[in-house]
């Protein structure tokens, strides 16, 4: 098994083929500093290639999911008295931060966000990159970047409209920076379930992860990949790509194994990838 030792992210394995990733700066309300950007990318790139992991739960340690960007750690690469050269340095800096959170979406395994307390700014960027979102009833959300003088630049403006499908609501949130609660998040489809307390959110997320981890990894990984591809392409392009994908994947021995297990009313066992 790969090493999972990170300064700002804690990784445990609570069940077979299930990983639990915790944002782990509880004294700072899991504010995202430079190290955490790096750790998030590293952990999800590692989990992507780990054959012992088939589903992932992502949560925050302590009082909340995350308070967003740690402003005190922000260190923009500035070239004094030279806006042009500063711009050439800032662009790869921003692209690197984007890539850190895209690692969540890029990870082949299903990622379930278990959200409690504040989920602010970068928390929306992180959770929109996840596949499934659950929240506790006291969770508070905000696309906060407009209130600190910038346009959100690491995923929210690109992913949130596709997650919820209501562009008027998305623009209201992004242009006002106002808070919205778990009930509103559920109403507009940002989350799929609400739970009465943080412990219940995590419990439910782990149960869903365990359920997914029991499936054929060929089927689960293919489903996530094809959903992401189809989201970003036309229906016909998605169908054509799926036909090309499945002309190979339909030959997997997982297919008859799953069918036989279903007929025998027992759980199938699948080989690691």
Count of helical regions: 10
Strand order of the largest sheet: 1-2-3-4-6-9
Main sheet properties: 6 strands, mixed
Give the N-to-C terminal Cα separation.
14 Å
**Contiguous uncertain segments of 5+ residues:** none
Strand composition percent: 15-25%
The amount of helix comes to 40-55%
Morphology:
globular
In N-to-C order, the SSE pattern is EEHEHEEHEEHHEHEHHHH
Describe the overall structure.
With 273 residues, the protein is of the alpha/beta class. The chain contains 10 helices and 9 strands. The protein has helices at 34-48, 83-106, 122-128, 156-164, 167-176, 182-187, 198-213, 217-231, 235-249, 254-263; strands spanning 9-15, 18-23, 55-60, 110-115, 118-120, 132-136, 140-142, 179-181, 193-195. Strands 1-2-3-4-6-9 form a 6-stranded mixed sheet, sandwiched between helices. A 3-stranded mixed sheet has the order 5-7-8. A hairpin with a 2-residue loop joins β1 (9-15) and β2 (18-23). The chain is globular, with a radius of gyration of 20 Å.
Topology:
Blueprint: E1 9-15, E2 18-23, H1 34-48, E3 55-60, H2 83-106, E4 110-115, E5 118-120, H3 122-128, E6 132-136, E7 140-142, H4 156-164, H5 167-176, E8 179-181, H6 182-187, E9 193-195, H7 198-213, H8 217-231, H9 235-249, H10 254-263
Parallel strand pairs: 2-3, 3-4, 4-6, 5-7, 6-9
Antiparallel strand pairs: 1-2, 7-8
